[in-house]
Design a protein that fits this description.
By secondary structure, the chain is of the alpha/beta class. The chain contains twelve helices and 15 strands.
Length: about 350
């Protein structure tokens, strides 16, 4: 099969012909129809993920058709249109049996623990636990945007944040995760504040449901400004970027008994950020992590998309070819794109 491959961290990406995958007895091989470019792929290419073994094929947001199937798979068949969450569970560990596949003790992640979806085919293990059948109403390109950024934001806002109508919600960082969170919180009736440093991105955030925007470059202390415009701070705040500054600001702009949701990946020097623990204590704040979403939780989100309450297709800036990914992936950290890029030509 044709695939994007890198043989060293931060090294060249090339198009190569590599062996087709074969399914495990409990797994499938999916013919990839579309796959998203995510900043997590950039982190992997940079060498920030210890699970990656070289040479490697990135890619973890995908939609496609089952091409081959293992003998023990019960709930899917060849020809099914499917997608998959970026965190795949084993289905049998203590976390999985409690329903928390997103923190599986033996989790696998396409594009990290094994070769990913920047290729014509990708293998997924434990298919009955991890695959999600796609409704006809959702096309492949839209479905490819769901597997990482959108589901992570959905669970962060709905399950972890328990956002409700009328609440103030701040979203720090308006990349794919942040824009998804804005759309989802707005759909639930929240008053969303979008925070970023790019005016074009903030304009997009407003079009997706933010009632106001804040350019962090224009304020000496962003949390103070947000506290002022919300009369005491926000109920829920999301760090959708993953930096020491956005994490600190997200906690600091909460009202009493508010919730900070950490969604943005913290790597390198940002892994152990400064936290205003005095405020956490005195105001009884909650600090909550959010890491993906279980496959069996997809129906609520898919129904909201089918019913027109969520429209992830509006997050797509452009579709590109597999060859385009060679230059697009290393540039993910420049934040030049205002929306998501999706590979749909192989």
């Amino acid at each position: 099969m044709k695939a994007v491959v890198y043989e060293s961290f931060q090294g060249p990406l090339t198009i190569q012909n590599v062996p087709d995958p074969t399914p495990q007895d409990n797994g499938v091989v999916i013919k990839v129809k579309a796959t998203g470019l995510c900043r997590s792929d950039w982190h992997g290419w940079m060498g920030h993920d210890p699970d990656i073994e070289l040479p490697h094929i990135p890619g973890h947001e995908l939609a496609g058709v089952i091409e081959a199937i293992g003998k023990n798979v019960l709930n899917f068949k060849i020809g099914d249109r499917v997608t998959v969450p970026f965190v795949c569970g084993c289905g049998t560990c203590m976390q999985c049996t409690s329903g928390n596949h997103q923190v599986c003790d033996s989790q696998s992640q396409p594009g990290f623990t094994h070769w990913g979806s920047f290729a014509e085919y990708v293998s997924i293990d434990y298919a009955d636990t991890n695959l999600v059948k796609l409704p006809d109403e959702i096309n492949d390109v839209t479905a490819a945007t769901l597997g990482c950024r959108f589901i992570t934001s959905f669970r962060a806002i709905v399950e972890q944040g328990k956002v409700s109508a009328g609440q103030y919600v701040a979203v720090h960082g308006c990349g794919g995760v942040g824009l998804s969170a804005i759309m989802i919180a707005n759909a639930l009736g929240a008053q969303v504040i979008a925070i970023d440093i790019n005016e074009d991105t903030l304009a997009l955030a407003k079009s997706l449901g933010a009632f106001t925007t804040v350019n962090a470059r224009k304020h000496d202390y962003t949390p103070e400004h947000i506290t002022s415009i919300t009369d005491g701070g926000v109920h829920v705040s999301v760090d959708a970027l993953g930096s020491a500054i956005t994490c600190f600001n997200s906690i600091s702009n909460l009202r009493k008994r508010g919730k900070h949701i950490q969604v943005g990946l913290m790597t390198g020097d940002h892994q152990h950020p400064k936290i205003p623990m005095d405020k956490v204590l005195s105001d009884e704040l909650e600090i909550i992590g959010s890491h993906g979403m279980q496959a069996y939780k997809y129906p609520e989100m898919l129904n909201m998309i089918k019913n027109g309450k969520l429209y992830p297709e509006k997050l797509i800036e452009k579709t590109i070819t597999l060859e385009d990914a060679i230059t697009a992936l290393p540039n993910m950290n420049t934040f030049d794109n205002k929306g998501m890029q999706v590979i749909n030509s192989f």
